[in-house]
Design brief:
The protein is an alpha+beta fold. It has helices at about 45-50, 70, 155-165; strands spanning about 1-5, 10, 15-20, 20-25, 30-35, 60-65, 80-85, 90, 95, 105, 110-115, 120-130, 130-135, 170-175. A seven-stranded mixed β-sheet has the order 1-4-5-6-7-8-9, covered by helices on one side. Strands 10-11-12-13-14 form a five-stranded mixed β-sheet, with no helix packed on it. Strands 2-3 form a two-stranded antiparallel sheet. The radius of gyration is 15 Å and the shape is globular.
Length: about 190
Amino acid sequence: MHVLTGGYADMSPTPWSVASTVTYIRDGDTHVVVDPGLVRSRDSILAPLRELGVQPEDITDVIFSHHHPDHTVNAALFPAARIHDHMAVYREDTWLSRPAEGFEISGSIRLLETPGHTPQDITTLVETAEGTVALTHLWWSQAGPPEDPLATDGAALHAGRKRVLDLATLIIPGHGTPFEPDAGTAR
């Protein structure tokens, strides 16, 4: 697993300066990119992949944590990939409806429904030798924020955080660097 580009969110000036955390996961023949959204340049995604010996055509799956453009806008960089969201898998002209909850991308990668930021948010869980990694927008960064200013359902967001904290040893947030949850992690 490799964070290709660290996300950030500066919403103070207009226009906003925002980028998603974009992550690459490999599990055998499964090559996944999570949240290929807004970044300073497409090369912020493609150059780290090239350094890993991975071409855009090698990506088998793309996962959207939710449908905001800052998490989805660069999905077309991966022409062979299946696209996963909260309700379906899409590939070329095929739409396969399915719930995200418990859906397995591979033997080590599965999805959880974790609404709150939006009603359609999902978390990607990856089982590694070091523990369980959660790629999620339940946190923007390690700092939280404690209350998501754009959340559509704060109670659901906090319930999702509790659920993920019971599972994860590492969190890769929507707009920040990976962190190990501790007693100070926003709940």
